[in-house]
């Protein structure tokens, strides 16, 4: 219903609203506005410690260090940019076309469609809790959001724009020029790439999800989880399943590279992941361990989206070391030592899935702008699962 | 199991070995003194002094009430009932369950009557016997057997005390504290574990003493852990006796400041039955002490005998089997110190790679100590006592013992950050309340200004309301109960909310409410 409403707005919104767009002077939920106009994140996890500030441990463990301190105006400008198809080469795709709030900031597809329907070979990851991450992309090749976003922006198979086109379009838009001057008050009148990257990073780091039912349990409310979910938690952290060894609380990732031996879909060449990027043979087929927060919202799973459900993804880990790989690949890959044969029962897999569902929290979902400075319809092309839903609903009506 | 250990160095060794040996025999340069003379007498990390009980700062307080559990009852049910400070006494009987302790300060103690123990029985189907995440947990006097994962596993709990347990065949690890600070593991007996019987992972300030470990793949492993002492343990008939490792690919990247002293490490010649792909599957049978990539490991006063491969081996990531390389982990074992130990009859049946190295270096005797790879600033006190291989770069230790360092356990328990109620109230306000309430704007719930006007001098009333909200306004959705917050935190957040004059922006009602 909600989606239909958004779709409706997309066509009905009057374009002249663009002129009236102003930036919020308030911080997003979760953030305190400091006297020097910075948004500072607070969380109940701030009560706890973690060894060496790494943010890995158990229930009452502090989060990894975070990136905050952007101004409300920068965050809000980033939100406009994030949803604006102007950022793509042909004005059809926004960041949200592959990272949609209604799909856990992913796209619900195995692998995303880029400009002109171009196919890509790695899944669009969720953007929740980016503020705590230090490595970006599945193969961990970027160390900042600013570096990361240049990948999809300028890839001819993703958003397909160029730095020059981006600067030209934004600088020729009076509304954006004004908003950038508000968000970056001491800067030059000319919009720069660094300002664009900073604003989008500001918005991305405002996407915080730390109020799931799991979190209530972690902070001490014993009844926050059902018996089945607690059984799932105990399997999750047990050394039989070993999920928590890499998907370590409280962020449910240890941010390391792991070679787990997922195969590619038929006909697709093997993806060597971090092994190629870092020229490290022992990382061949290795990918960054993703956070599992809001994981129930971001099917399908793995770097190539081969698993349709959480159950299938969990099943992978109990099917045996290297079971999905051919002999040649098995020889070539140094599988992570935690990949083994835990022999989990079907009931245990269901309990694990039940536990993973307790990691869902989207209370701080930001609003999709009603209008954009570009005058383009917000989001642009919808991720296909949403577009499909719309079509079918539309037809029924 | 793999014998890739050292294989990398063989070819290089064959090429340069003869030349290098000739050089070495020809020179007689004075040996460098290595290490500060006062390394262990004024060790900043050493906290407990002689005469202090080792368990002074670890374990549960026992200040609460006692809950008794008898055969046929559930230990977990008792844990659920227990509050911090309570003692749970478990009487003899067989308990088939997984006990998880997500609370602080719980004392789980077995009662042994006329030789009858409380037995935790996993039947080869249950995953773990005891899981804890709380601080100040004591687990003692249990016989634990037939679990698939661990006997006792800790995740991030500080000040733990694990003692007097008898662990037999509990799967991957026996006792496995992970990511904790300040912990004591003493007087446990463990056997039949397919990885490390006692495995200390990513911890700080640890003491492991007077345990007996046998017939495991690894006896005691100190991994990615700092400030640890392993002493007075009986370690025999494992595949590898005592390991000090940096395992790559973990979020905590270092191991240093480890003392391995006064242990009996003998006959660790058990066939390796580690799981394929596990790191210990690469430990050759017959290895007494293995130091891999760990720094500042001091080995003193041990009796190391009858380990067929080698008494002590110091190695790096490149030379070890099954190890991935992690650019953020230093692969070399540096500042290793071998002080006085008693060693004999080790290395009588070395793996092929060591045999090859012996051949290259014209060593015929059985070897006690092998170093493979670069090891900077390492030392050996009296090399003449042992047959060594690859230790030519080792200097003489400038210190002769570790007596000045009694333990790295902390004099006081590792404490959580001391936060005031106001600070906690602020965390809860921004962390939770701002999802629905902003200062002077309607969001999902009413503006904070309106709440302030209603509850001005009545934070208790507000705290009660948020625990059990009732629908007050026709045009707003009903507030979900915040009873998962403790009463103290509810009052703290109510007080903060009534005092706050800050702003928070609201979510899009369209996204957060069903229209």
Automatic annotation (TrEMBL), chain B:
Q: Where is the Cytochrome c domain?
A: 420-501
Q: In which pathway does it act?
A: Protein modification; protein ubiquitination
Is the Acetylation keyword given for this protein? no
| Record-linked PROSITE patterns | CYTC
Q: Which domain of life is it from?
A: Bacteria
From the UniProt record, which GO molecular function terms apply? electron transfer activity; heme binding; metal ion binding
Family matches, as InterPro entries = Beta_helix, Cyt_c-like_dom, Cyt_c-like_dom_sf, Para_beta_helix_rpt-2, PbH1, Pectin_lyas_fold, Pectin_lyase_fold/virulence, SCF-Subunits/Alg-Epimerases
An example Pfam family from this entry, by short name, is: Beta_helix
Q: Which of UniProt's keywords are assigned here?
A: Heme, Iron, Metal-binding, Repeat, Ubl conjugation pathway
NCBIfam families membership: beta_helix_1, para_beta_helix
Could you identify this protein by its name? Parallel beta-helix repeat protein
Q: Please give the organism.
A: Simiduia aestuariiviva
């Amino acid at each position: 219903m909600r989606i239909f409403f958004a779709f409706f707005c997309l066509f009905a919104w009057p374009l002249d609203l663009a002129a009236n767009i102003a930036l919020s002077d308030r911080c997003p939920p979760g953030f305190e506005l400091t006297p020097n106009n910075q948004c500072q994140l607070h969380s109940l996890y701030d009560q706890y410690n973690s060894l060496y500030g790494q943010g890995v441990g158990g229930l009452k463990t502090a989060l990894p260090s975070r990136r905050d301190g952007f101004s409300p105006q920068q965050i809000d400008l980033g939100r406009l940019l994030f949803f604006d198809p102007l950022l793509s080469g042909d004005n059809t795709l926004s960041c949200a076309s592959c990272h949609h709030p209604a799909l856990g900031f992913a796209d619900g597809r195995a692998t995303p469609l880029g400009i002109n329907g171009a196919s890509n070979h790695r899944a669009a990851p969720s953007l929740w809790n980016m503020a705590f991450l230090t490595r970006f992309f599945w193969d961990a090749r970027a160390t900042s959001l600013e570096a990361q976003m240049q990948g999809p922006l300028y890839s001819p198979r993703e958003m397909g724009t160029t730095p020059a086109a981006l600067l030209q379009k934004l600088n020729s838009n009076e509304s954006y020029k004004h908003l950038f001057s508000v968000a970056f008050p001491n800067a030059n009148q000319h919009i720069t790439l660094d300002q664009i990257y900073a604003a989008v990073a500001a918005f991305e780091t405002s996407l915080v999800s730390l109020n799931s039912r799991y979190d209530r349990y972690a902070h001490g409310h014993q009844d926050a989880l059902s018996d089945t979910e607690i059984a799932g938690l105990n399997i999750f952290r047990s050394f039989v399943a070993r999920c928590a060894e890499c998907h370590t609380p409280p962020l449910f990732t240890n941010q390391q590279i792991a070679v787990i031996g997922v195969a590619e879909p038929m006909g697709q060449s093997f993806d060597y992941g971090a092994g190629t990027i870092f020229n490290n043979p022992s990382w061949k087929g290795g990918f960054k361990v993703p956070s599992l927060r809001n994981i129930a919202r971001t099917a399908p799973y793995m770097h190539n989206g081969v698993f349709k459900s959480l159950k299938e993804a969990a099943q992978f880990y109990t099917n045996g070391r290297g079971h999905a790989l051919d002999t040649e690949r098995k020889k070539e890959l140094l599988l992570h030592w935690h990949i083994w044969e835990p022999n989990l029962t079907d009931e245990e897999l269901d309990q694990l899935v039940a536990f993973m569902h307790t990691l869902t929290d989207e209370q701080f979902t930001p609003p999709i702008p009603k209008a954009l400075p570009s005058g383009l319809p917000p989001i642009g092309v919808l991720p296909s699962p949403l577009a499909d839903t719309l079509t079918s609903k539309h037809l029924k009506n | 199991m793999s014998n890739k250990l050292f294989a990398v160095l063989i070819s290089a060794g064959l090429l340069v070995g003869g030349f290098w040996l000739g050089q070495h025999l020809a020179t007689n340069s004075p040996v460098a003194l290595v290490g500060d003379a006062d390394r262990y007498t004024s060790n900043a990390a050493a906290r407990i002094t002689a005469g202090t009980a080792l368990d002074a700062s670890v374990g549960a307080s026992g200040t609460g009430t006692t809950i008794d559990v008898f055969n046929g009852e559930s230990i977990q049910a008792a844990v659920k009932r227990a509050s911090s400070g309570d003692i749970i006494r478990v009487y003899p009987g067989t308990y088939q369950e997984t006990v998880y302790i997500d609370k602080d300060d719980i004392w789980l103690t077995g009662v042994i009557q006329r030789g009858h123990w409380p037995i935790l029985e996993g039947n080869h189907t249950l995953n773990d016997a005891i899981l804890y995440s709380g601080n100040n947990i004591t687990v003692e006097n249990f016989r634990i057997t037939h679990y698939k994962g661990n006997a006792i596993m800790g995740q991030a709990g500080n000040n733990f005390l694990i003692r007097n347990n008898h662990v037999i065949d509990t799967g991957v690890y026996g006792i496995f504290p992970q990511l904790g600070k300040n912990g004591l593991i003493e007087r446990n007996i463990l056997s039949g574990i397919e990885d490390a019987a006692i495995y200390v992972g990513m911890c700080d300030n640890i003491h492991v003493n007077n345990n007996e470990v046998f017939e495991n793949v690894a006896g005691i492993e100190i991994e990615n852990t700092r400030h640890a002492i392993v002493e007075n343990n009986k370690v025999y008939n494992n595949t590898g006796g005592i390991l000090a490792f940096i395992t790559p690919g973990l979020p905590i990247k270092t191991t240093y400041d480890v003392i391995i002293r006064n242990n009996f490490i003998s006959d660790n010649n058990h066939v390796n039955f580690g799981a394929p792909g596990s790191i210990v599957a690469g430990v050759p049978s017959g290895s007494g002490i293995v130091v891999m990539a760990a720094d500042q490991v001091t080995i003193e006063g041990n009796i190391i005998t009858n380990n067929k491969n080698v008494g002590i081996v110091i190695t790096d990531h490149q030379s070890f089997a099954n190890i991935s390389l992690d650019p953020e982990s230093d692969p070399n074992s540096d500042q290793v110190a071998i002080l006085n130990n008693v060693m004999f009859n080790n290395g009588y049946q070395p793996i092929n790679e060591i045999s090859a190295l012996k051949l290259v270096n014209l060593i015929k005797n059985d070897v006690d100590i092998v170093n493979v790879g670069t090891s900077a600033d390492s030392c050996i006190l009296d090399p003449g006592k042992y047959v060594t291989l690859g230790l030519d770069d080792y200097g003489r230790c400038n210190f002769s013992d570790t007596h000045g360092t009694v333990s790295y356990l902390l004099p006081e328990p590792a404490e959580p950050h001391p936060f005031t109620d106001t600070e906690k109230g602020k965390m809860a306000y921004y962390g939770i309340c701002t999802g629905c309430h902003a200062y002077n704007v309607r969001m999902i719930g009413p503006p904070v200004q309106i709440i302030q006007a209603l509850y001005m001098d009545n934070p208790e009333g507000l705290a009660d309301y948020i625990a059990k909200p009732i629908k007050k306004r026709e045009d707003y959705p009903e507030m979900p109960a915040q009873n998962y917050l403790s009463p103290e935190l509810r009052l703290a957040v109510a007080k903060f909310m009534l005092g706050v004059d800050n702003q928070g922006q609201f979510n899009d009602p369209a996204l957060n409410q069903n229209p």
